[in-house]
Amino acid sequence: MTENICCVCAEAPVSSREALTCSSPCAHALSRAHALENRTGLKVSPIAFLTQKYCRGCKQLLPFAAFYQLKGKAYNLCSECCKKETLRRYYDGKRLDPEKAHRVQRDKALARRYGITRQQYEEMLLGQNGVCLTCGRDASRSSHGVLPVDHDHETGVVRGLLCTRCNRVLAMVGDDVDLLLALAMLVERGRTLVGS
Fold first, then answer.
1. Separation CA 194–CA 192 (nearest Å)
2. Considering 34, 50, 66, which residue would you say is the last residue of a domain?
């Protein structure tokens, strides 16, 4: 009686007469080869799928290392095609709806830089009556018509929304309270000298 050999690796014996493959990886390789042939008409030996994967973008068999590997997510595009597709989607979206693209970009920046959502930003803006927390300028007089988020650079705590001018002043003095008080006293002394 002859022993059945795996139809993929052609080395290991199969467990029963009905089985075509010796192991789960060989079974997956056979399945991928059949799926590729059904989808594209391309005939590829199943053994290639033990070490490679088919990229739907460049239509090539590439080593597994050429694909992004995130836990629980399978990519059908190699790393290079995935980057191109991401850029294409980004620029298509930006071209089709530039306002939406700007909103999405702003939302991501708020979350990444300050850990707040657009809704939290809007609530802060409403709480400040749409004006700078320190000088009272409205958003329309600030860069791009929005009030920048002011935060403590050491702790990351969001302090409020300031106009571009006030935000720059704080950045220039490095949030140094003593320096700000000294500058305020200098301005006040200048005013009293002019008044006398």
1. 5
2. 50
CA 75 – CA 85 distance, rounded (Å) = 12
Say if residues 166 and 135 touch (Cβ distance below 8 Å): yes
CA distance 17 to 117: 60
- In terms of average pLDDT, the best of 25-34, 37-46, 121-130 is 121-130
Q: What is the mean pLDDT of residues 150-168?
A: 87
Q: What is the mean pLDDT of residues 142-163?
A: 84
> Is 92 in a helix, a strand, or coil?
helix
pTM: predicted TM-score of the whole model, two decimal places: 0.49
By three-state DSSP, how is residue 134 classified? coil
Return the sign of the alpha-carbon dihedral for residues 41, 45, 47, 51: negative
Asked whether the predicted pLDDT for residue 1 surpasses 50, the reply is: no
What does pLDDT average to over the chain?
A: 82
- 107 occurs within a structural domain: no
The radius of gyration of the chain from alpha carbons, rounded to an integer in Å, stands at 31
Q: 139 is in which domain, residue-wise?
A: 123-189
Please identify which residue in the block is written with the tokens 């995130």. Answer: 70
Domain count, the chain: 2
Rounded Cα distance, 117 and 106, in Å: 10
Does residue 19 register a pLDDT over 50? yes
Alpha helices, DSSP H, located in 41-163: 79-96, 98-114, 118-127
Q: Give CB contacts under 8 A, 24+ apart, made by 151-159.
A: 151/113, 151/114, 156/114, 156/115, 158/114, 158/115, 158/116, 158/124, 159/133
